[in-house]
Amino acid sequence: MPRASYQRIADELRRRIITGELTSGERMPSRQALADEFGVGPRVAADAVQQLVAEGYAVSRTGSGTYVRPKPPLRRLTRSWYRESRGGSPFRADMAAQARSGGWESASETVPASEEVAARLAIEPGAEVMRTGYTFTADNEPVMLSTSYEPLAITRGTPVVLPEEGPYAGRGVVERMREIGQRILHANELVTARSTDVAEADRLRIGRGTAVIVIKRTYYTQDHPVETADIIVPSDRYELAYTIPVAPE
Prior knowledge:
Layout: H1 6-19, H2 31-38, H3 42-55, E1 58-61, E2 65-68, E3 75-80, H4 81-85, H5 90-97, E4 102-112, H6 115-121, E5 128-138, E6 141-151, H7 152-155, H8 173-178, E7 186-195, H9 198-204, E8 211-220, E9 225-234, E10 238-243
Parallel strand pairs: 3-10
Antiparallel strand pairs: 1-2, 4-5, 5-6, 6-9, 7-8, 8-9
Protein name: HTH gntR-type domain-containing protein
InterPro entries: Bact_HTH_transcr_reg, Chorismate_lyase_/UTRA_dom_sf, Tscrpt_reg_HTH_GntR, UTRA, WH-like_DNA-bd_sf, WH_DNA-bd_sf
GO molecular function, one term: DNA binding
């Protein structure tokens, strides 16, 4: 077998973990076993395993070895109109229902709308929007990312221009917009899946390339969209539960 770099070995071990050949909690092959298999020195094999530790696929235990990181329990995130209408933070309410402490970190800035964001908000590309990036946590562990965009043509000069500052900080979008006369009637969500990029993986403390659920959500009043967001959820940690109201005949 031709000699392999530590990256090639890391790629193969990552594949074995993802496909289940190496199972959750299983001890990783020793440095010597990897060195023999791939025709490399023990140092190269050790670097490959350390790469997987850095990416979150494996965990080292002093005096014991390196193991495939156990998968966290699958939890549920609720997506429903009732969730957005009940007041306060919908995410924090979801976490409280699971006996967990929900919180988040955020940062807001004014940016020109990209073509995609402009199309979702029915505004001109380059129009100013308030972009807010969130890292949501449960018991101080990151569990979800979100980047929201709100047209400044609607919120500029109002108490809700900054989603996480002012008298309505931390409230859901529906409640915040209601305070400035924007009555949200419905939301659309487009759900897809992809692999994380490096920045997302680092923020979520998960392996690079891990599969995530991506929700592209947009809120509408009767006349126009008022907010759109990209929500990123690790697929091995959460499942999405949708509640869909049905009007009586």
